[in-house]
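re: ur question from yesterday

yeah so i grabbed the chain u mentioned. its 748 aa long if i counted rite. heres the sequnce exactly as i have it in my notes:
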Amino acid sequence: MTFIKLDPNLMQGLIKNLESYADEAERARSNIHSSSVNNSHPVPEVDDATYLPAIFTVTSADAPTSRMMDTLNSMSINSNTGSSYNTTMGATINALGEVIDGLQERLQVIIDLNTDGISTTSSDGVPGYYLPDGTADTVENVKSYNTEAVATARADADALTQAAADGKADDGRTVDEVLASMATYQDSPAYGATFVNTYGIEKFIELPISVYWHYTKYTGQRAAGYGDYRADTEAIDKANGILAHLLAGATQTEKVPDGFDSWADALYETSTVKGHRGRVSCLNELLSASNAVYDTSTLVNLATKMESQDSSNGGYYDGDPASRTPDQISGWHDAGYGNFYNEGRAFPGGHMDPMYGVMVAMGNNPEAAVEYLTPEGDGSVDGNGVWVPGQTTVDRWAMLTSRDWDPDCGLDSFTSVLGAASSFRNRAPSETDPDVSATADARAAYACGRAMSYFGGEEFTKKDFTDTMKRNLAVVAANSSQDVSTVAEDGALGADATSAGLAATDIASLIYRFGDNQDAMTTLATGLGQYHHNAIQEAMNDPDANENGLRYGYRQAAASSSYLQTLSELRFADDKKKDSEEQKTTVDTSLSVFNAVSAAGLTALTDGAAAPMLAFTTGSTIAKPLISSQVTDALGTSTGDPYTGLRAQSYADGLNYGLFSTDSDKGGQRAIDTARSHSWYHEDENGNPAIDTTALTGDQASDAMTWREHQVTNTDDKGVLNDLDTSITAGKSIGEDSAKSNNGPRRK
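ran it thru and got these structure tokens back, copy pasting raw so excuse formatting
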């Protein structure tokens, strides 16, 4: 959904100003036309441009209060000839009138929503309205998805109740037909809040159960363990996705269910009340839906409340098998013991871990993730820019790293939060990213350090990592690329990393543990590529830049590339998959992606590649795990040795940054002269080298190597090229040595 802010006071002022302007324009039109009439229309074009039928003539006195412009375009008939013509000034005034009316109608939407108690505001408190992504901001759409959605929601809520009970609603619609209407408005906060309040929060929370059995055919007794149940999982997931998006939109409003102080209170108290704690599985189903973005404060407060449901805090949950609800319909079922607990209905196959759903939901909301893990009001940034956590943060991390997570999926959800929070690393308030907190970078750095030291530490082995954990933790590492690059060069970690207890071997161990997952390695390669792209650009855009900056930048890049390669190969070797096709694909893909992004930055993925683009924040950090196939589809496939490609990129950058000789009297064949005959060489309109380093094929990279070795004979140019080549060779060796050193991974 897209939120459009609209300050009512400022908007009313703008409307009045535009109305005054329109009235003045109408007076001017009328005066010009009168003057033309009084002078017998000496210039016919003026008459045509200012003519208005007599019945619509507006005098100066009544101009401010008259608005008859809606009919002007249709009333453009010349009284003398009967032919149609364009009333130029009239049409322009009419168009302005339409703008005014549109603004007024949008303002009225805000007023009406507030009257209904469904007001929505931005982070800075300015009200507004929502529109589905890709929907035009027309008056019709604004009304449809906001004020008109309220009436639709009431009708749909009543119809769903009726259809679920009788097969059809009073208006003739089935459950499926009502769900289709709900899908149309699923992201409208006004619709969602009205629907939930009309339907009832307790009934709504249990809807996933109703949906499950609506789309499940069974034979035999309708009881756990009896009969043949055949669930249409696709239909169930689709319907629950609609419900999840609807609820997420509802939390963006102030229309809280009756009897509760906030949406967090409503969700928590409804799902955890004794006798109905089976509802936790339903709430988890709704909170964990893909791409459903819940309100930030709702998620933070809900997660804080759910902490009390752990047995260590006097709650019900202790991570045992009773936390799962695989096949029952009437109560909370213990798969291990086979008996029912008197805790109400639960979602079949659902998860009873009270932290699971809200963790996944925060994975879709980075602002909530970083605020929950490192509350802004509980800590401070020291003189070195390092986040110093308060006691609440310390206690929260102690709880998160010691609790009994759901053995099936709990750590999947925890790592989802960590990945989302990491997207605030190296982000600061800017024109393109204005809403980011000034402390977010420091807080995210602390969270990343804690995450990498925990999951890269002694408490875990590679066998503990699910594929989901690997992908999520790769996001953390990708957004911590400066730390990864530093370790790749066997250097000391920064103060922000070590303050969180992070050691070089933790980073190596973490990458080793997800090094067999192609999506995870692609995600990390993308983040590292972006880091080195920025570092090289920053160095070479310095007014005093020279070849040393480029040499050092490419040595660092080669070290990072080699570090990733070696850790991944170690993992495959330890898994008895050395030189396997899986290893080759994973390593080759990640190094190819690294080269492409280091050359072009994230624009290589975000320009014309809608699917991968969704994974990036405004600040160009990674918010979600990347899918390898999407990335390679956007980038194309690279062939040949990756380090040959990296060398070719460095040569091209040397040409682009003007590091080679321009003196034709220095002797030998200059780089700039000999390069012009090659297919990879291009110039801009001013005749300067402008080589697209992202477009180099494997054959072109090999050709560039031959060019360097045999064609360039100018001593100065040859020296620059050889230095670049030597730096990359050195970097490759450094990265491999770092991965295999005492700071290398815990290979378990």
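noticed a couple things. Strands lie at 2-5, 128-131, 216-219, 228-231, 324-325, 332-333, 340-341, 350-351, 379-381, 387-389. also The first strand starts at residue 2 and ends at 5.
anyway ttyl
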